[in-house]
Design a protein that fits this description.
α1 runs antiparallel to α2 and α3 packs across α5. The two termini are 64 Å apart. The protein is globular. The protein has 556 residues and is α+β, with helices and mostly antiparallel strands. It has five helices and 34 strands.
């Protein structure tokens, strides 16, 4: 048998991290170990390969330790060693331990044989004594049975009276509750039986050959972009009219290839994408560290080289004159969209940059696996504000619609609200019980198209729940418990009245924000990485791990 190579071991560890949900650790190992440069075909490596190899190795060493030159065959039950002993001791030491434990087991077996004869005699005597005791017990039982019947009748009468009093109390409580049923909702777990969206009413966009990680509607027209692990992005034109199998014409598509020649270049996975404000240009970020600019017709306009690691986040500012990118190389870069040159590179983090978000046209925030958040401004050599308080990597950051509050979420199970007016967080939300993957502000409150509705924050977690927070007082409004696995994406409808959520449980739920309950559900055939609404709020798109993008209509 040939020895396992370091490249093969790296790939097994890389796959183990991916399967265990350690996404960022897998990205980092894959990048530093050059996994994408290897020749290993991941399709032939079964799930859980590393665990299987370790288990088989332990079993082999234990089998070897249980075998010596005089053994013709190994005992069927040879589990005499602990895993830690197998890992820390050599075979000779293990053989001595096995011999000692075999002798001990043999002595125990002999002692058992000696005791069997004595046990048989004692068992016979005990059986006779038990029979005599049983006869005596039966006599006493007959005498007590009549007493029990009289006592039972008396207890039943008491129980009936107690039950009547209990029913009276419940009726009284209900009447009081009805009379007090005014005021706002209280935090509660909410899940109801929703209206199912059937496959016949869904348009399935097929063409990607790997998981679809990102999707985004263009601000102009029925155009949807998707980005995949197959090293392509795609721009789909969705036909007018209702979605589903009865749609008169299929969606037309432009394929945006991020490779030349080979199609299995893992380094060119499309990790993020974003449309400019006019919907005329699409920016894509890739695992190869390059940002690419495309026309809405799928023509490559520009390739931006400067990052030295995968790009995880990419955002246009509202004006459209700058593009912001954040990378595993720990930096963020502002690109001038007129010249496509690097306007400024910000090198403040000590670990990979996971997310970036514009506050206005010239300032923005960045977050990282170093637990830090920096607020930066174009032209300033240092951060204008530093927020520290998270105890683990910060997965996402989002400014509210007015740019006055910054929300963040972390692997430390918390979401926090920050203000430039103070160093400590304004609110620290701790109700989740696992890592929080993403957050979204509602398009409501001052400065939005829905100024009369209160501003809310939604947080989605690996604990399978979504929580809705009102940020004026910092209260939990609803805990939305409808998913059974981690929730990767949430998105508010443009009118702020509905929330779409997508999970690894293959379900897309549409919730009523006002009532905190599920209105509609679609069950796909793969985990959902992202959900998004079109500009009109009439269609929802979701991208799946089974290589598809699904589009469905929304009407109430």
């Amino acid at each position: 048998m040939g020895a396992i190579t370091s490249a093969e071991l790296n790939f097994l560890v890389f796959r183990y991290l991916q399967e265990s949900g350690f996404v960022h650790a897998a990205f980092t190992l894959g990048y530093e170990a050059g996994i994408h440069k290897g020749v290993i075909d991941g399709n032939v490596v079964p799930p859980g390969a590393l665990i299987t190899i370790v288990q088989k190795g332990l079993q082999y060493i234990e089998l070897e330790a249980n075998t010596d030159e005089n053994d013709e065959e190994v005992e069927k039950d040879f589990a005499l060693l602990e895993p830690l002993e197998i890992i820390t001791k050599d075979v000779e030491e293990l053989q001595q331990i096995v011999k000692k434990r075999k002798r001990e087991r043999l002595q125990i077996d002999r002692d058992k044989d000696k005791g069997k004869e004595k046990e048989c005699i004692e068992e016979y005597e005990q059986r006779l004594a038990d029979e005599r005791e049983r006869e005596r017990h039966d006599r006493e039982k007959g005498q007590e049975r009549e007493k029990d019947r009289i006592e039972r009748d008396r207890v039943q009468e008491k129980e009936k009276e107690r039950e009547k009093q209990h029913i009276d109390r419940i009726d009284k409580f209900k009447n009081e509750e009805d009379s007090l049923a005014s005021g706002g909702p209280t935090p509660m777990d909410v899940s109801t039986t929703p209206h199912e969206i059937f496959s016949a009413d869904v348009t399935v966009l097929e063409g990607h050959s790997s998981e679809v990680f990102a999707c985004a509607w263009s601000p102009a027209g029925s155009i949807l972009a998707s980005g995949s692990g197959d090293s392509t992005a795609r721009i789909w034109t969705i036909p007018d009219g209702p979605c589903g199998s009865t749609q008169p014409s299929p969606a037309s598509v432009h394929v945006l290839k991020h490779f030349k020649g080979r199609t299995n270049e893992k380094s060119k996975d499309v990790t993020t994408l974003d449309w400019n404000g006019e919907g005329t240009q699409l920016a894509t970020g890739s695992y190869d560290g390059q940002a690419r600019i495309w026309s809405r017709d799928g023509e490559l306009k520009q390739t931006l080289f400067k990052h030295k690691g995968p790009i995880f986040s990419l955002k246009w500012n509202r004006k459209g004159d700058f593009l912001l990118s954040g990378s595993v190389d720990k930096t963020a870069i502002v690109w001038d969209t007129k010249t496509w040159e690097c306007k400024q590179q910000f090198e403040f983090h000590s670990a990979p940059t996971l997310d970036v978000d514009w506050r206005n046209n010239s300032s923005f925030a960045t977050c990282s696996t170093d637990n830090m958040i920096y607020v930066c401004k174009i032209g300033d050599p240092r951060p204008v504000k530093t927020f520290s308080g998270h105890q683990s990597e910060v997965n996402a950051i989002k400014w509210d619609p007015t740019g006055s509050l910054l929300a963040s979420c972390s692997d430390d199970w918390t979401a926090k609200i920050w203000s430039l007016k103070q160093d400590k967080c304004v609110y620290d939300f701790k109700e989740h019980t696992k890592e929080i993957y993403t957050i979204r502000w509602s398009p409501t409150g001052p400065g939005t198209n829905n100024p009369n509705q209160q501003l809310l924050l939604a947080s989605a977690s690996f604990d399978s729940s979504i929580k809705l927070w009102e940020v004026e007082q910092g209260h939990l409004l609803y805990s939305l418990a409808g998913h059974r696995q981690p929730v990767y994406s949430v998105s508010f409808s443009p009118n702020g009245e509905y929330l779409a959520s997508g999970s690894l449980d293959q379900s897309l739920h549409i919730w009523s924000v006002k009532e905190g309950k599920i209105l509609k559900t679609f069950r796909g055939s793969g985990g959902i990485f992202e959900v998004c609404w079109n500009k009109e709020g009439s269609k929802i798109a979701a991208c799946f791990s089974n290589n598809t993008v699904c589009v469905m209509d929304f009407r109430m």
